[in-house]
Amino acid sequence: MRTMRTPEDRFRDLPEFDYAPEYSEIDDAEGGRLRVAWVQDGPSEADPVLLLHGEPSWSFLYRRMIPILTAAGHRVVCPDLVGFGRSDKPTRIEDHSYARHVEWMRALLFDVLDLRRVTLVGQDWGGLIGLRLAAEHPDRFANIVVANTGLPTGDIPMPEIWWQFRTAIRSAPTIEVGRFVASGCRRSVSDEVRAAYDAPFPDDSYCAGPRAMPGLVPTAPEDPASAANRSAWKVLAASPTPMLVAFSDGDPITGGMAPIFKREMRGAQRIDHPVIGDAGHFLQEDAGEELAEAIVEFLADAATRGR
């Protein structure tokens, strides 16, 4: 598998994100190796809060949440998906599959970092990947937070705006990631922040990951990932693992999933689920502080229930 690696100087002077990256290599599924990056902060002995980003962002998306979570005593682990951020970037769209992304994160989180008693926070593809991991490795997870995400099986039609996004990001001559992120926000995004979202992608040759991901979402019942996602739904629906549904009030892409999670998931019952106000699809960018505070409260309540 041919890969590209974003030069480190692209990540200098990032606003509000001065965490030193860590790296490890995992198998690429074709006999080679991939370097995967993550940042972490907080007490090393604390249970980990795993922050998984989606398409087409990277761990920078969580910069306003990390200090709030660590101040509350939590250890934060925030990886870059393969193809994004500081992680290696396979150069062909066909190098990417849903199953590979699940396995790549599994290898990092469990084989390399050996995370246990994890609180998953998944938004966008961070939920699509993270929820699969939570269903397939339930012994590793203590809590789940779903935030503007889903676990599609292809049995329910995707909203029209998602199809428009898929067409735009797959067909655009070049991908301006910062512009795409800003268009998914309710609040203004500065030029400096847009540039930080662009940083992992010096030119379009680095963008196979962002171009591939929309095509990996199951949109038909016979999609290659549909059966695994259906199985994951069944496991999660029956699981007692506490689940916080923390969606924004302005996401036309995944907003319809919030009531389904609240209704269908056993772990979501008898929990006070917040609605993050004045926030779009990228609620971490619009309202990261509010989302982090809701997670801190959820984890405090979960600790009380566990005593």
From TrEMBL:
SUPFAM superfamilies: alpha/beta-Hydrolases. Keywords: Hydrolase. InterPro entries: AB_hydrolase_1, AB_hydrolase_fold, Epox_hydrolase-like, Haloalkane_dehalogenase. The keyword Hydrolase applies. Residues 48-153 form the AB hydrolase-1 domain. Gene3D superfamilies: alpha/beta hydrolase. This is Haloalkane dehalogenase. It holds the Pfam family Abhydrolase_1.
